[in-house]
UniProtKB/TrEMBL annotation:
Belongs to the flavoprotein pyridine nucleotide cytochrome reductase family. It is an enzyme of class 1 (oxidoreductase). It is a single-pass membrane protein. It comes from Lasiosphaeria ovina. One of its GO terms (molecular function) is cytochrome-b5 reductase activity, acting on NADH. SUPFAM superfamilies: Ferredoxin reductase-like, C-terminal NADP-linked domain, Riboflavin synthase domain-like. It catalyses: 2 Fe(III)-[cytochrome b5] + NADH = 2 Fe(II)-[cytochrome b5] + NAD(+) + H(+). Pfam families: FAD_binding_6, NAD_binding_1. It comes from the Eukaryota. May mediate the reduction of outer membrane cytochrome b5. The keyword Flavoprotein applies. It is found in: Mitochondrion outer membrane. This is NADH-cytochrome b5 reductase 2. InterPro entries: CBR-like, Cbr1-like_FAD-bd_dom, FAD-bd_FR_type, FNR_nucleotide-bd, OxRdtase_FAD/NAD-bd, Riboflavin_synthase-like_b-brl.
């Protein structure tokens, strides 16, 4: 999509990039639909309760922070109140929230997507897990929020999930890129109609960054035939039970994710991670990526 309309410069730069991820497209649509200047004007609009699912409508919503919890040395869980405590968020599988803030002393708003991690059916609350990057504009802002503070968010649709469209889905995540995968895993496994099998491969820097291990462990116990999770740790502790290094072709083959095997030909591969990881998986102009080497076609791969 060519850039048009009043995009702030940083978004314009993103929009001219030849290949946009699903999220970049969704962010562009959200901004194009409303206009960048409206972000300033409607900052605190729609704080009123309604009798509809709270975040189902397009546009901006102001949410009150209910509570926070530090879940690892640099990850915080932020629990926000929805306008109507008896209604769920109304977000569809899969969705993110585009968060907007104007840091002190700046002209342009900072827009970053974060992925709700509580069940999308839960009424009254929406929860984010945010990893703090030193010097990161939005993650620092979010980590500084106190209960009672407000945050402006706009729902954005990510990959629209259709139950049973694929027999098997491979989720490959790096670091905080795990959150869309967690939302999808819960959505699939908690839907009795959906029989999709899931293989998750999550790359992290250290053992302590596997901040959803407990939640994934519970799902593995409950769905041992349908859900498998593998953690790959770049610099593991000596006692770590996990494979060491990055997510390589060998790791994915060992996880049963080679596309050349007949049973994997209808598999869908979803990727969310830092740019170097996505590049290694999806390849660059000069170099085919690990997923190409494994036999996946571009149509089988989706990037959040
Ligand atoms: C679809 C989608 C969903 C996301 N969901 C979540 C989520 O649920 N939780 C979450 O914590 N994040 C999530 N992110 C990432 C998030 O949107 C921000 O990119 C991140 O919080 C950094 O923003 P910032 O403004 O703090 O950092 P910036 O000010 O943009 O960057 C400051 C510095 O931080 C470092 N940095 C920033 N991002 C990364 C990165 N990804 N990897 C390594 N270093 C980095 C870089 O050195 C950079 O120079 C998601 C991203 C996408 C695309
Ligand atoms: C919340 O939703 C319920 C159910 O739809 C509705 O009856 C109620 O009036 C709503 N509350 C507010 C404060 O809007």
């Amino acid at each position: 999509m060519p850039p048009s309309g009043p995009f702030p410069p940083f978004l314009r730069a993103k929009l001219t990039a030849s290949s946009m991820s699903g999220t970049q497209v969704a962010v562009a649509a959200a901004v194009a639909g409303v206009g960048a200047y409206a972000l300033y004007l409607r900052k605190s609009a729609s704080a009123n309760a309604t009798d509809k699912p709270s975040l189902a409508s397009f546009g901006f919503h102001s949410l009150r922070l209910h509570s926070t919890e530090l879940v690892s040395h640099n990850v915080k869980r932020l629990r926000f109140e929805l306008p109507n405590s008896t209604q769920p968020s109304g977000l569809s599988l899969t969705s993110a929230l585009l968060t907007i803030s104007i840091p002190a002393g700046r002209w342009l708003p900072v827009l970053r997507p974060y992925t709700p991690v509580n069940s999308l059916d839960e009424t009254g609350f929406v929860e984010l897990m945010v990893k703090h990057y030193p010097g990161g504009k939005q993650s620092s802002h979010l980590h500084s929020l106190k209960p009672g503070d407000r945050l402006t968010v706009a729902p954005i649709k990510e990959l629209s999930w259709t139950p049973n469209k694929h027999p098997h889905v491979a989720l490959i995540a790096g670091g905080a890129g795990i959150t869309p995968m967690y939302q999808l895993t819960q959505g699939i496994l908690n839907n009795p109609e959906d029989k999709t099998r899931i293989t998750l491969v999550w790359g992290v820097n250290t053992d302590s960054e596997i901040f959803l291990a407990e939640q994934f462990g519970a799902l593995q116990k409950k769905f041992p035939d349908r859900f498998k999770a593998i953690y790959v740790v770049a610099t593991p502790e000596s006692s770590s039970p996990h494979p060491k290094g990055f997510i390589t072709k060998q790791i994915l083959e060992d996880a049963g994710l080679s596309a050349s095997s007949e049973k994997n030909k209808d598999i869908k591969v979803l990727v969310c991670g830092p740019p170097p990881m996505e590049k290694a998986l999806k390849g660059a102009k000069s170099k085919p990526g690990v997923l190409t080497e494994l036999g996946y076609s571009p149509a089988q791969i989706y990037s959040f």
